[in-house]
Amino acid sequence: MSVAITADKVVKRYGDLTIIPQLTQNIKNGEFFTLLGPSGCGKTTLLRMIAGFNSIEGGQIRFNDQVINDIPAHKRNIGMVFQSYAIFPHLTVRENVEYGLKLRNMPKDEMKTKVDKILDVVQITEYQDRLPERLSGGQQQRVALARAIVIHPSVLLMDEPLSNLDAKLRVEMRSAIREVQKQVGITTVYVTHDQEEALAISDRIAVMKKGVIQQTGRPHTIYTRPYNVFVATFIGHSNLFKGRIEEADGGKAVVFADGFVLPMSTLGEEGKIGDDVTIAIRPEEFSICGEGQGIKCKIKTKVFLGKYITYGLDFPDDMLVPDQPAIEYSQDLGHAEKVLEIGDTVYLKPNAAKINVFRADGSKSLMEGVVENE
Amino acid sequence: MNKKFQWDFWAWITLLSIVIFGLFLIYPLFSLFLSAFQDATTGEFTMENFTHFFERKYYYQSMINSFSVTACVTILAVIIGTALAYFMTLFKVRGKNIVEICIIISLLSPPFIGAYSWILIGGRSGILTQWMAGMGIDFPSIYGFAGILLVLTLKLYPFIYLYVAGAMKNIDSALIEAAESLGCSGIKKVVTIMLPLITPTILAGALMVFMNAMADFGTPMLIGEGFNVMPVMIYSEFINEVGDQANFAAAMAAIMVLITSTIFMLQKYVVNKKSFTMSSLRPLPVGEMKGIKNVVMHLCIYLLVALSMIPQLVVIYTSFLKTNGAIFVDGYSLDSYRTIFGSLGTAISNTYIFSTAAMAVIVFLGMTVAYLTTRKKSWLTDIIDTLTMFPYIIPGSVLGITLLLAFNDDPMLLSGTAIIIIISLVIRRLPYTLRSSSAILYQLSPSLEEASISLGASPLKTFFKVTAVMMLPGVMSGAIISWITAINELSSSVILFTGATKTMSVAIYTEVIRASYGTAAALSTILTITTITAMVIFFKVSGRRDVTL
Question: ipTM of the predicted structure?
Answer without folding.
Answer: 0.81
